[in-house]
Design goal:
heterodimer, A: 234 residues, mainly alpha, elongated, B: 316 residues, 10 helices, 68% helix
Chain lengths: 234, 316
Protein backbone atom coordinates (compact mmCIF):
# COMPACT_ATOMS: atom_id res chain seq x y z
CA UNK A 1 0.00 0.00 0.00
CA UNK A 2 1.47 3.35 -1.00
CA UNK A 3 1.89 6.19 1.45
CA UNK A 4 -0.71 8.37 -0.27
CA UNK A 5 -3.36 5.63 -0.17
CA UNK A 6 -2.64 4.92 3.47
CA UNK A 7 -2.93 8.63 4.26
CA UNK A 8 -6.23 8.78 2.39
CA UNK A 9 -7.63 5.76 4.24
CA UNK A 10 -6.55 7.16 7.59
CA UNK A 11 -8.16 10.50 6.80
CA UNK A 12 -11.38 8.84 5.67
CA UNK A 13 -11.41 6.85 8.90
CA UNK A 14 -10.86 10.07 10.85
CA UNK A 15 -13.73 11.65 8.90
CA UNK A 16 -16.03 8.76 9.81
CA UNK A 17 -14.99 9.20 13.44
CA UNK A 18 -15.58 12.98 13.27
CA UNK A 19 -19.08 12.50 11.87
CA UNK A 20 -19.62 9.84 14.55
CA UNK A 21 -18.92 12.52 17.15
CA UNK A 22 -21.41 14.82 15.42
CA UNK A 23 -24.15 12.17 15.54
CA UNK A 24 -23.41 11.64 19.23
CA UNK A 25 -24.06 15.35 19.79
CA UNK A 26 -27.20 15.04 17.69
CA UNK A 27 -28.53 12.21 19.86
CA UNK A 28 -28.11 14.45 22.91
CA UNK A 29 -29.96 17.35 21.32
CA UNK A 30 -32.52 15.90 18.90
CA UNK A 31 -36.13 16.69 19.80
CA UNK A 32 -37.97 13.96 17.96
CA UNK A 33 -37.80 10.32 19.03
CA UNK A 34 -37.75 9.24 15.40
CA UNK A 35 -34.88 11.64 14.66
CA UNK A 36 -32.95 10.10 17.54
CA UNK A 37 -33.37 6.68 16.01
CA UNK A 38 -32.26 7.96 12.59
CA UNK A 39 -29.14 9.49 14.12
CA UNK A 40 -28.41 6.23 15.90
CA UNK A 41 -28.67 4.36 12.58
CA UNK A 42 -26.31 6.88 10.97
CA UNK A 43 -23.91 6.49 13.88
CA UNK A 44 -23.89 2.70 13.55
CA UNK A 45 -23.28 2.99 9.80
CA UNK A 46 -20.34 5.31 10.46
CA UNK A 47 -19.00 2.81 12.99
CA UNK A 48 -19.21 0.07 10.36
CA UNK A 49 -17.45 2.32 7.82
CA UNK A 50 -14.68 3.06 10.31
CA UNK A 51 -14.25 -0.65 11.07
CA UNK A 52 -14.09 -1.50 7.35
CA UNK A 53 -11.53 1.25 6.69
CA UNK A 54 -9.39 0.12 9.60
CA UNK A 55 -9.71 -3.43 8.28
CA UNK A 56 -8.39 -2.20 4.94
CA UNK A 57 -5.60 -0.28 6.65
CA UNK A 58 -4.37 -3.17 8.80
CA UNK A 59 -5.43 -5.92 6.42
CA UNK A 60 -7.46 -7.57 9.16
CA UNK A 61 -10.31 -9.92 8.38
CA UNK A 62 -11.72 -9.60 11.88
CA UNK A 63 -12.39 -5.90 11.43
CA UNK A 64 -14.33 -6.66 8.24
CA UNK A 65 -16.34 -9.09 10.36
CA UNK A 66 -17.01 -6.34 12.92
CA UNK A 67 -18.15 -4.04 10.13
CA UNK A 68 -20.50 -6.69 8.77
CA UNK A 69 -21.97 -7.54 12.19
CA UNK A 70 -22.53 -3.83 12.87
CA UNK A 71 -24.03 -3.28 9.46
CA UNK A 72 -26.62 -5.99 9.98
CA UNK A 73 -27.44 -5.79 13.68
CA UNK A 74 -27.77 -2.07 14.43
CA UNK A 75 -29.11 -0.24 11.38
CA UNK A 76 -31.48 -3.06 10.36
CA UNK A 77 -32.43 -5.36 13.24
CA UNK A 78 -32.61 -2.79 16.05
CA UNK A 79 -35.17 -0.49 14.33
CA UNK A 80 -37.13 -3.54 13.21
CA UNK A 81 -37.21 -4.97 16.75
CA UNK A 82 -38.22 -1.61 18.20
CA UNK A 83 -41.03 -1.29 15.71
CA UNK A 84 -42.26 -4.76 16.65
CA UNK A 85 -42.14 -4.49 20.43
CA UNK A 86 -42.33 -0.79 21.31
CA UNK A 87 -45.67 1.06 21.29
CA UNK A 88 -46.37 3.07 18.15
CA UNK A 89 -47.07 6.16 20.24
CA UNK A 90 -43.31 6.48 20.65
CA UNK A 91 -42.91 7.36 17.00
CA UNK A 92 -45.90 9.58 16.47
CA UNK A 93 -45.11 12.11 19.18
CA UNK A 94 -42.96 14.88 17.77
CA UNK A 95 -41.70 16.74 20.79
CA UNK A 96 -39.74 14.98 23.48
CA UNK A 97 -38.85 17.06 26.50
CA UNK A 98 -35.53 17.09 28.31
CA UNK A 99 -34.34 17.90 31.80
CA UNK A 100 -32.14 20.72 30.46
CA UNK A 101 -32.87 23.02 27.54
CA UNK A 102 -31.06 22.18 24.35
CA UNK A 103 -28.30 24.83 24.23
CA UNK A 104 -27.32 24.06 27.83
CA UNK A 105 -27.28 20.33 27.16
CA UNK A 106 -25.13 20.93 24.07
CA UNK A 107 -22.64 23.06 25.99
CA UNK A 108 -22.26 20.42 28.71
CA UNK A 109 -21.88 17.79 25.99
CA UNK A 110 -19.10 19.87 24.45
CA UNK A 111 -17.31 20.03 27.79
CA UNK A 112 -17.61 16.24 28.08
CA UNK A 113 -16.19 15.76 24.59
CA UNK A 114 -13.24 17.98 25.42
CA UNK A 115 -12.80 16.04 28.66
CA UNK A 116 -12.61 12.84 26.60
CA UNK A 117 -9.35 14.19 25.17
CA UNK A 118 -7.64 13.87 28.54
CA UNK A 119 -8.90 10.32 28.98
CA UNK A 120 -8.37 9.18 25.42
CA UNK A 121 -4.96 10.51 24.45
CA UNK A 122 -3.01 8.74 27.26
CA UNK A 123 -4.88 5.54 26.43
CA UNK A 124 -4.09 5.86 22.72
CA UNK A 125 -0.43 6.57 23.59
CA UNK A 126 -0.30 3.50 25.83
CA UNK A 127 -1.60 1.29 23.01
CA UNK A 128 1.23 2.47 20.79
CA UNK A 129 1.51 2.81 17.02
CA UNK A 130 -1.21 0.28 16.22
CA UNK A 131 -3.87 2.82 17.26
CA UNK A 132 -4.26 5.27 14.38
CA UNK A 133 -6.48 8.29 14.04
CA UNK A 134 -8.86 9.79 16.55
CA UNK A 135 -10.83 6.58 17.21
CA UNK A 136 -9.91 6.18 20.87
CA UNK A 137 -10.68 9.72 22.11
CA UNK A 138 -13.78 10.02 19.92
CA UNK A 139 -14.95 6.59 21.06
CA UNK A 140 -14.59 7.69 24.68
CA UNK A 141 -16.38 10.94 23.86
CA UNK A 142 -19.19 8.84 22.34
CA UNK A 143 -19.32 6.79 25.53
CA UNK A 144 -19.55 9.89 27.73
CA UNK A 145 -22.14 11.55 25.48
CA UNK A 146 -24.25 8.37 25.55
CA UNK A 147 -24.11 8.40 29.34
CA UNK A 148 -25.04 12.08 29.30
CA UNK A 149 -28.02 11.28 27.05
CA UNK A 150 -29.10 8.75 29.69
CA UNK A 151 -29.08 11.44 32.35
CA UNK A 152 -30.87 14.25 30.50
CA UNK A 153 -33.59 12.33 28.65
CA UNK A 154 -36.97 11.58 30.14
CA UNK A 155 -38.37 9.50 27.33
CA UNK A 156 -37.94 5.73 27.02
CA UNK A 157 -36.77 5.45 23.41
CA UNK A 158 -34.05 8.14 23.59
CA UNK A 159 -32.87 6.56 26.85
CA UNK A 160 -32.45 3.23 25.11
CA UNK A 161 -30.66 4.92 22.23
CA UNK A 162 -28.33 6.64 24.69
CA UNK A 163 -27.46 3.19 26.06
CA UNK A 164 -26.80 1.83 22.58
CA UNK A 165 -24.77 4.93 21.70
CA UNK A 166 -22.54 4.20 24.70
CA UNK A 167 -21.94 0.76 23.27
CA UNK A 168 -21.18 2.28 19.86
CA UNK A 169 -18.61 4.57 21.44
CA UNK A 170 -16.91 1.70 23.25
CA UNK A 171 -16.85 -0.22 19.96
CA UNK A 172 -15.30 2.69 18.05
CA UNK A 173 -12.49 2.90 20.60
CA UNK A 174 -12.18 -0.87 20.73
CA UNK A 175 -11.70 -1.51 17.02
CA UNK A 176 -8.66 0.72 16.88
CA UNK A 177 -7.08 -0.83 19.98
CA UNK A 178 -7.70 -4.54 19.32
CA UNK A 179 -7.60 -5.45 15.63
CA UNK A 180 -7.74 -9.19 16.12
CA UNK A 181 -10.39 -9.74 18.69
CA UNK A 182 -12.03 -13.13 18.39
CA UNK A 183 -15.13 -13.13 16.20
CA UNK A 184 -17.01 -14.87 18.99
CA UNK A 185 -16.71 -11.78 21.19
CA UNK A 186 -18.08 -9.50 18.50
CA UNK A 187 -21.04 -11.77 17.88
CA UNK A 188 -21.69 -12.07 21.62
CA UNK A 189 -21.71 -8.29 22.01
CA UNK A 190 -24.01 -7.84 19.02
CA UNK A 191 -26.46 -10.41 20.35
CA UNK A 192 -26.29 -8.84 23.79
CA UNK A 193 -27.21 -5.47 22.30
CA UNK A 194 -30.19 -6.96 20.51
CA UNK A 195 -31.39 -8.66 23.68
CA UNK A 196 -31.13 -5.34 25.55
CA UNK A 197 -33.23 -3.70 22.83
CA UNK A 198 -35.79 -6.47 23.07
CA UNK A 199 -36.06 -6.37 26.86
CA UNK A 200 -36.25 -2.58 27.05
CA UNK A 201 -38.80 -2.54 24.24
CA UNK A 202 -41.04 -5.02 26.09
CA UNK A 203 -40.56 -3.08 29.32
CA UNK A 204 -41.54 0.18 27.64
CA UNK A 205 -44.58 -1.50 26.19
CA UNK A 206 -45.61 -2.71 29.62
CA UNK A 207 -45.01 0.73 31.13
CA UNK A 208 -47.03 2.39 28.38
CA UNK A 209 -49.89 -0.06 28.96
CA UNK A 210 -49.89 0.47 32.74
CA UNK A 211 -49.28 4.20 32.91
CA UNK A 212 -50.39 5.39 29.51
CA UNK A 213 -47.18 7.20 28.66
CA UNK A 214 -43.61 6.46 27.72
CA UNK A 215 -42.22 9.57 29.38
CA UNK A 216 -40.46 7.52 32.03
CA UNK A 217 -38.80 10.60 33.52
CA UNK A 218 -42.12 11.57 35.05
CA UNK A 219 -42.47 8.28 36.91
CA UNK A 220 -40.75 9.64 39.99
CA UNK A 221 -42.64 7.98 42.83
CA UNK A 222 -44.06 4.54 43.50
CA UNK A 223 -47.79 4.33 43.12
CA UNK A 224 -48.49 2.72 46.51
CA UNK A 225 -46.41 5.35 48.29
CA UNK A 226 -48.22 8.10 46.43
CA UNK A 227 -51.58 6.53 47.30
CA UNK A 228 -50.59 6.24 50.96
CA UNK A 229 -49.54 9.90 50.98
CA UNK A 230 -52.88 11.00 49.61
CA UNK A 231 -54.66 8.84 52.20
CA UNK A 232 -52.65 10.42 54.97
CA UNK A 233 -53.42 13.88 53.65
CA UNK A 234 -57.11 13.04 53.56
CA UNK B 1 1.97 45.28 -10.82
CA UNK B 2 -0.35 47.10 -13.20
CA UNK B 3 -2.18 43.97 -14.22
CA UNK B 4 -2.60 42.85 -10.60
CA UNK B 5 -4.46 46.07 -9.90
CA UNK B 6 -6.48 45.50 -13.06
CA UNK B 7 -7.41 41.94 -12.03
CA UNK B 8 -8.37 43.21 -8.60
CA UNK B 9 -10.73 45.71 -10.21
CA UNK B 10 -11.99 42.94 -12.48
CA UNK B 11 -12.86 40.89 -9.35
CA UNK B 12 -14.87 43.81 -8.00
CA UNK B 13 -16.68 44.22 -11.33
CA UNK B 14 -17.46 40.49 -11.37
CA UNK B 15 -18.99 40.65 -7.92
CA UNK B 16 -20.98 43.79 -8.73
CA UNK B 17 -22.23 42.44 -12.03
CA UNK B 18 -23.18 38.91 -11.06
CA UNK B 19 -24.47 39.34 -7.49
CA UNK B 20 -28.02 40.28 -8.66
CA UNK B 21 -27.97 37.39 -11.11
CA UNK B 22 -27.28 34.94 -8.27
CA UNK B 23 -30.31 36.10 -6.32
CA UNK B 24 -32.40 36.09 -9.51
CA UNK B 25 -31.46 32.50 -10.34
CA UNK B 26 -32.04 31.44 -6.73
CA UNK B 27 -35.51 33.01 -6.66
CA UNK B 28 -36.43 31.52 -10.04
CA UNK B 29 -35.31 28.01 -9.09
CA UNK B 30 -37.23 28.16 -5.83
CA UNK B 31 -40.40 29.14 -7.69
CA UNK B 32 -39.83 26.33 -10.18
CA UNK B 33 -39.57 23.81 -7.35
CA UNK B 34 -42.98 25.03 -6.16
CA UNK B 35 -44.41 24.42 -9.69
CA UNK B 36 -44.63 28.13 -10.42
CA UNK B 37 -42.96 29.96 -13.26
CA UNK B 38 -41.43 32.75 -11.24
CA UNK B 39 -39.90 36.04 -12.36
CA UNK B 40 -37.14 36.24 -14.93
CA UNK B 41 -33.65 35.64 -13.62
CA UNK B 42 -32.82 39.22 -14.69
CA UNK B 43 -35.57 40.69 -12.53
CA UNK B 44 -33.13 41.91 -9.81
CA UNK B 45 -31.32 44.01 -12.44
CA UNK B 46 -34.61 45.58 -13.54
CA UNK B 47 -35.51 46.26 -9.92
CA UNK B 48 -32.21 48.00 -9.33
CA UNK B 49 -32.57 50.02 -12.56
CA UNK B 50 -36.07 51.09 -11.59
CA UNK B 51 -35.07 52.04 -8.05
CA UNK B 52 -32.13 54.13 -9.23
CA UNK B 53 -34.52 56.23 -11.33
CA UNK B 54 -37.04 56.80 -8.57
CA UNK B 55 -37.26 59.66 -6.13
CA UNK B 56 -35.79 59.09 -2.72
CA UNK B 57 -37.82 60.06 0.31
CA UNK B 58 -36.04 60.54 3.61
CA UNK B 59 -37.78 61.14 6.91
CA UNK B 60 -37.17 64.62 8.36
CA UNK B 61 -36.58 63.13 11.79
CA UNK B 62 -33.74 60.88 10.70
CA UNK B 63 -30.11 61.76 11.21
CA UNK B 64 -27.05 61.53 8.95
CA UNK B 65 -26.69 57.84 9.80
CA UNK B 66 -29.78 57.03 7.79
CA UNK B 67 -28.35 58.78 4.69
CA UNK B 68 -24.85 57.42 5.16
CA UNK B 69 -25.75 53.75 5.76
CA UNK B 70 -26.57 52.69 2.16
CA UNK B 71 -23.08 53.69 1.08
CA UNK B 72 -21.47 51.67 3.91
CA UNK B 73 -23.64 48.66 3.12
CA UNK B 74 -22.74 48.99 -0.56
CA UNK B 75 -19.01 49.55 -0.12
CA UNK B 76 -18.26 46.94 2.58
CA UNK B 77 -18.66 43.85 0.33
CA UNK B 78 -16.63 45.58 -2.40
CA UNK B 79 -13.86 46.16 0.11
CA UNK B 80 -13.93 42.50 1.16
CA UNK B 81 -13.80 41.48 -2.51
CA UNK B 82 -10.37 43.10 -2.71
CA UNK B 83 -9.08 40.74 -0.02
CA UNK B 84 -10.42 37.32 -1.00
CA UNK B 85 -9.88 35.00 -3.96
CA UNK B 86 -12.79 35.46 -6.35
CA UNK B 87 -11.08 34.68 -9.65
CA UNK B 88 -7.40 34.03 -9.01
CA UNK B 89 -5.61 31.56 -6.75
CA UNK B 90 -2.70 33.97 -6.14
CA UNK B 91 -2.97 37.14 -4.05
CA UNK B 92 -3.75 40.33 -5.96
CA UNK B 93 -2.63 43.89 -5.32
CA UNK B 94 -4.82 44.79 -2.35
CA UNK B 95 -4.85 41.35 -0.72
CA UNK B 96 -2.19 42.32 1.82
CA UNK B 97 -4.67 44.62 3.59
CA UNK B 98 -6.48 41.95 5.57
CA UNK B 99 -7.22 38.27 6.12
CA UNK B 100 -10.53 36.42 6.49
CA UNK B 101 -10.98 37.82 9.99
CA UNK B 102 -10.53 41.35 8.65
CA UNK B 103 -13.12 40.68 5.95
CA UNK B 104 -15.52 39.46 8.62
CA UNK B 105 -15.03 42.68 10.58
CA UNK B 106 -15.72 44.84 7.52
CA UNK B 107 -18.97 42.95 6.86
CA UNK B 108 -19.87 43.31 10.55
CA UNK B 109 -19.38 47.09 10.23
CA UNK B 110 -21.99 47.18 7.46
CA UNK B 111 -24.36 45.17 9.65
CA UNK B 112 -23.76 47.57 12.54
CA UNK B 113 -24.64 50.62 10.43
CA UNK B 114 -27.72 48.89 9.00
CA UNK B 115 -28.91 48.26 12.57
CA UNK B 116 -28.36 51.88 13.57
CA UNK B 117 -30.20 53.13 10.49
CA UNK B 118 -33.15 50.82 11.21
CA UNK B 119 -33.47 52.25 14.72
CA UNK B 120 -32.89 55.79 13.47
CA UNK B 121 -36.20 56.33 11.66
CA UNK B 122 -38.44 55.25 14.57
CA UNK B 123 -40.49 53.05 12.26
CA UNK B 124 -41.72 50.36 14.70
CA UNK B 125 -40.79 47.44 12.42
CA UNK B 126 -37.21 48.56 11.85
CA UNK B 127 -36.01 48.12 15.45
CA UNK B 128 -37.82 44.77 15.75
CA UNK B 129 -35.97 43.44 12.74
CA UNK B 130 -32.73 45.08 13.82
CA UNK B 131 -32.80 43.50 17.25
CA UNK B 132 -33.60 40.12 15.73
CA UNK B 133 -30.72 40.48 13.30
CA UNK B 134 -28.45 41.30 16.23
CA UNK B 135 -29.73 38.22 18.04
CA UNK B 136 -28.88 36.00 15.09
CA UNK B 137 -25.62 37.91 14.70
CA UNK B 138 -24.36 37.45 18.22
CA UNK B 139 -25.26 33.77 18.15
CA UNK B 140 -23.40 33.41 14.84
CA UNK B 141 -20.36 35.29 16.05
CA UNK B 142 -18.82 32.50 18.20
CA UNK B 143 -19.30 30.08 15.31
CA UNK B 144 -17.46 32.47 12.98
CA UNK B 145 -14.62 32.75 15.47
CA UNK B 146 -14.26 29.03 16.07
CA UNK B 147 -14.38 28.39 12.31
CA UNK B 148 -11.62 30.91 11.65
CA UNK B 149 -9.52 29.73 14.57
CA UNK B 150 -9.84 26.12 13.44
CA UNK B 151 -8.87 27.17 9.93
CA UNK B 152 -5.81 28.97 11.24
CA UNK B 153 -5.04 26.02 13.52
CA UNK B 154 -5.17 23.52 10.65
CA UNK B 155 -3.71 25.61 7.84
CA UNK B 156 -1.40 27.73 9.96
CA UNK B 157 -2.83 30.95 8.54
CA UNK B 158 -6.00 32.97 8.17
CA UNK B 159 -4.98 34.37 4.80
CA UNK B 160 -7.44 32.83 2.34
CA UNK B 161 -4.83 32.24 -0.38
CA UNK B 162 -2.76 30.05 1.92
CA UNK B 163 -5.78 28.27 3.40
CA UNK B 164 -7.19 27.14 0.06
CA UNK B 165 -3.94 25.40 -0.89
CA UNK B 166 -4.00 23.45 2.37
CA UNK B 167 -7.12 21.43 1.53
CA UNK B 168 -6.02 20.11 -1.87
CA UNK B 169 -2.33 19.23 -1.45
CA UNK B 170 -2.28 16.30 -0.82
CA UNK B 171 -5.83 15.39 -1.79
CA UNK B 172 -6.21 13.31 1.40
CA UNK B 173 -6.46 16.59 3.31
CA UNK B 174 -9.77 17.25 1.62
CA UNK B 175 -11.31 14.39 3.63
CA UNK B 176 -9.79 15.41 6.94
CA UNK B 177 -12.59 15.51 9.55
CA UNK B 178 -11.77 19.08 10.51
CA UNK B 179 -12.28 20.21 6.90
CA UNK B 180 -15.63 18.49 6.34
CA UNK B 181 -17.04 19.57 9.71
CA UNK B 182 -15.86 23.15 9.09
CA UNK B 183 -17.68 23.15 5.77
CA UNK B 184 -20.86 21.97 7.51
CA UNK B 185 -20.58 24.66 10.18
CA UNK B 186 -19.91 27.36 7.59
CA UNK B 187 -22.90 26.21 5.52
CA UNK B 188 -25.14 26.74 8.55
CA UNK B 189 -23.55 30.16 9.02
CA UNK B 190 -24.31 31.14 5.42
CA UNK B 191 -27.93 30.14 5.95
CA UNK B 192 -28.08 32.31 9.08
CA UNK B 193 -26.13 35.30 7.80
CA UNK B 194 -27.73 35.30 4.37
CA UNK B 195 -31.20 35.20 5.91
CA UNK B 196 -32.05 31.94 4.17
CA UNK B 197 -34.89 29.66 5.11
CA UNK B 198 -34.41 27.74 8.32
CA UNK B 199 -33.56 31.07 9.95
CA UNK B 200 -35.35 33.73 7.93
CA UNK B 201 -37.68 33.78 4.95
CA UNK B 202 -36.20 36.02 2.25
CA UNK B 203 -39.44 36.16 0.26
CA UNK B 204 -41.71 36.95 3.20
CA UNK B 205 -43.78 40.14 3.03
CA UNK B 206 -45.14 40.07 6.55
CA UNK B 207 -43.37 42.77 8.55
CA UNK B 208 -43.83 41.16 11.97
CA UNK B 209 -42.05 37.98 10.86
CA UNK B 210 -39.18 39.69 9.05
CA UNK B 211 -35.64 39.45 10.30
CA UNK B 212 -33.25 40.63 7.63
CA UNK B 213 -35.58 42.50 5.28
CA UNK B 214 -37.14 44.86 7.77
CA UNK B 215 -33.95 46.87 8.14
CA UNK B 216 -34.44 48.43 4.71
CA UNK B 217 -38.19 49.01 5.03
CA UNK B 218 -37.81 52.79 5.34
CA UNK B 219 -35.55 53.17 2.33
CA UNK B 220 -36.74 54.21 -1.09
CA UNK B 221 -35.24 55.08 -4.45
CA UNK B 222 -31.46 55.13 -4.70
CA UNK B 223 -30.85 54.31 -1.03
CA UNK B 224 -33.00 51.19 -1.28
CA UNK B 225 -31.23 50.15 -4.49
CA UNK B 226 -27.85 50.46 -2.76
CA UNK B 227 -29.06 48.49 0.28
CA UNK B 228 -30.44 45.75 -1.96
CA UNK B 229 -27.39 45.56 -4.18
CA UNK B 230 -25.13 45.60 -1.12
CA UNK B 231 -27.05 42.71 0.44
CA UNK B 232 -26.78 40.69 -2.77
CA UNK B 233 -23.05 41.38 -2.98
CA UNK B 234 -22.57 40.36 0.65
CA UNK B 235 -24.21 37.03 -0.12
CA UNK B 236 -22.03 36.62 -3.21
CA UNK B 237 -18.89 37.38 -1.20
CA UNK B 238 -19.87 34.84 1.48
CA UNK B 239 -20.41 32.25 -1.26
CA UNK B 240 -16.98 33.07 -2.72
CA UNK B 241 -15.29 32.57 0.66
CA UNK B 242 -17.22 29.35 1.21
CA UNK B 243 -16.65 27.86 -2.25
CA UNK B 244 -13.25 29.21 -3.26
CA UNK B 245 -11.53 28.92 0.09
CA UNK B 246 -13.23 26.11 1.97
CA UNK B 247 -15.13 23.71 -0.27
CA UNK B 248 -13.80 23.60 -3.82
CA UNK B 249 -10.55 25.51 -4.30
CA UNK B 250 -10.44 24.37 -7.94
CA UNK B 251 -11.24 26.32 -11.07
CA UNK B 252 -9.46 29.51 -10.03
CA UNK B 253 -6.97 31.12 -12.39
CA UNK B 254 -3.41 30.13 -11.62
CA UNK B 255 -1.87 31.83 -14.66
CA UNK B 256 -1.09 35.50 -15.01
CA UNK B 257 -2.63 36.17 -18.43
CA UNK B 258 -5.94 37.88 -18.99
CA UNK B 259 -7.28 34.75 -20.74
CA UNK B 260 -6.76 32.63 -17.64
CA UNK B 261 -8.56 35.11 -15.43
CA UNK B 262 -11.47 35.46 -17.86
CA UNK B 263 -11.74 31.67 -18.10
CA UNK B 264 -12.00 31.45 -14.29
CA UNK B 265 -15.14 33.59 -14.39
CA UNK B 266 -17.53 30.98 -15.90
CA UNK B 267 -15.94 28.26 -13.74
CA UNK B 268 -16.57 30.21 -10.54
CA UNK B 269 -20.11 31.02 -11.66
CA UNK B 270 -20.68 27.33 -12.39
CA UNK B 271 -19.53 26.42 -8.87
CA UNK B 272 -21.89 29.02 -7.44
CA UNK B 273 -24.72 27.64 -9.59
CA UNK B 274 -24.10 24.13 -8.24
CA UNK B 275 -24.18 25.48 -4.71
CA UNK B 276 -27.41 27.34 -5.44
CA UNK B 277 -28.97 24.01 -6.41
CA UNK B 278 -28.01 22.65 -2.98
CA UNK B 279 -29.38 25.80 -1.36
CA UNK B 280 -32.69 25.49 -3.23
CA UNK B 281 -32.94 21.91 -2.02
CA UNK B 282 -32.33 22.98 1.60
CA UNK B 283 -34.72 25.90 1.40
CA UNK B 284 -37.50 23.94 -0.26
CA UNK B 285 -37.34 20.99 2.13
CA UNK B 286 -37.18 22.85 5.44
CA UNK B 287 -39.63 25.09 7.24
CA UNK B 288 -38.72 28.38 8.85
CA UNK B 289 -37.79 27.96 12.49
CA UNK B 290 -39.62 29.73 15.28
CA UNK B 291 -37.61 32.67 16.55
CA UNK B 292 -36.36 31.05 19.72
CA UNK B 293 -35.43 27.87 17.92
CA UNK B 294 -32.81 29.84 15.99
CA UNK B 295 -30.64 29.63 19.09
CA UNK B 296 -30.77 25.84 18.77
CA UNK B 297 -29.92 25.95 15.07
CA UNK B 298 -26.88 28.12 15.70
CA UNK B 299 -26.06 26.04 18.77
CA UNK B 300 -25.84 23.06 16.42
CA UNK B 301 -23.55 25.10 14.15
CA UNK B 302 -21.38 25.96 17.16
CA UNK B 303 -21.14 22.32 18.21
CA UNK B 304 -20.21 21.35 14.65
CA UNK B 305 -17.42 23.91 14.53
CA UNK B 306 -16.07 22.86 17.92
CA UNK B 307 -16.27 19.21 16.82
CA UNK B 308 -14.11 20.21 13.83
CA UNK B 309 -11.59 21.69 16.22
CA UNK B 310 -11.46 18.75 18.63
CA UNK B 311 -11.34 16.24 15.77
CA UNK B 312 -8.16 17.99 14.68
CA UNK B 313 -6.78 17.89 18.23
CA UNK B 314 -7.75 14.23 18.62
CA UNK B 315 -5.69 13.30 15.58
CA UNK B 316 -2.83 13.43 18.03
Amino acid sequence: MSDATRQLIENLNALAAGLFLLTAFGIVAMRQARGCLMLFIAQSLLLAVSAALLGLRFDSGHLYGVALVNLISKPIIVPWLLRRVAPAELYTRREVDQVLNIPTALLIALALAIGAYFLGIPLAKAVGPSSVGPNVPIGIAGLLLGAFTLTVRREALPLLIGLLAMENGAFLAGISIAHDLSMLVELAIATDGLIIVFIVGVLVRAVAKQVGTTAVGELASLREAAARNTERAA
Amino acid sequence: MGERIFYNVLQVITVMAFAPLVSGVLARLKEMVQSKRGPSIFQPYRDLWKLFHKDEIVSEDSSWIFRFTPYVVFVAPIFVTLLIPVLTSYPLFFAFMGDMLGGGFVLALAGFFATLAAVDTANPYGPIGASRTRMVGFLAEPVFMIVFFTVSFVAGSTIPYIVQQKWVTPIANFFAPSHVLLVLAFLMLILAEGGRIPVDNPTGHFELAMIDESKSLEYSGRGFALMKWGGQMKFFVLLCIFLNVLVTPWGLAAGQTLGDVLLAMPLVLFKIFCFILVLVFIESSLAKLRLFRIAEFLGAAFVTSVAAMIAQVFLG
